[in-house]
Amino acid sequence: MAAFPFDGPSQEASRLTAFAENTLDRRSENRPRDCLLTALRDHRTLAYAVMNGRLLLAFDEATPAALFPLAKLASLGADLDRAVLLGFASDMAPRLVVPVSTEAEDLPVPYKAVDYRSLYMQALLPPPLLGEVAQGASLIAWNDSARYCGRCGGRTRSECGGYRRDCPACEKQYFPRTDPVVIMLTVDEVKDRCLLGRSPHFRPGMFSCLAGFVEPGETIEDAVRRETLEESGIALGRVRYHASQPWPFPHSLMLGCYGQALSGEIRFDSTELEDCRWFSRSEVRGMLSHPSEDGPATPAEGTIAHRLITDWAFREG
What we know:
Helix 6 (281-289) crosses helix 7 (304-313). The chain contains seven helices and 15 strands. A hairpin with a 5-residue loop joins strand 4 (84-88) and strand 5 (94-99). It is an alpha+beta fold. The strands form three sheets. Strands 1, 2, 3, 4, 5 and 6 form a six-stranded mixed β-sheet that branches. Strands 10, 11, 12, 13, 14 and 15 form a six-stranded mixed β-sheet that branches.
């Protein structure tokens, strides 16, 4: 089997998920302590503005605008002390994310605050910008949660453009967290069917892949097996990675896998799921090709669950 079955990154399944495309030059090995200050002084700098899990958009053109010169954000209460340097665009212009203090209901025309999930559900931004927003949202959330030192309780200070926080009191350093989450489609190859579950918070009729956090000291494969067994009672054999997706709620990385079912009797955890069942390939193809508000439905396009389900349902052979 070829180690690299694709011709390039563009054919990776991850590229077909929301928030996954990001073309910024992050310069992760070259973030001097004054890089944010330098970016704030650069007249070419453009910034995303965020507030309480929402992105500021200007709707005065046919296409919503998401990037603004810093001067335009001053009247909206831009908090430059909490700004984060995301990286550099193809023209070498710095790209920032900046929290603003104006409440959503007080925004002047033509601005609106849109939650991150709606950005991809409504296709309001092109994929590269959506990926930049995910990066910025995750970093803002992490910085806000790490303002105090976990060792001594002192106030921490943002460094390296928002990619590190230092405690001046005890010299402890903190770095951005990314929470790994396995999301898996269990497949019964003998009966040509897959396992989907329904959580109580899902929209009516929706079924999706099972998912759960990777625990400390656990491999991705073992996390897939453990979560599937705990939630559905189905034992798994082989596990194969398929795709990943940045998920800025607040800073997760979804790790999409397929799992080989070794058993068939479902005994689902009713504290986690309100339903869990097997679906044949033909049923799943119908759910994907003819979405219904009445019958079972799959997750929205752009989600990694949709990618896993689609790629199994319509795979060749």
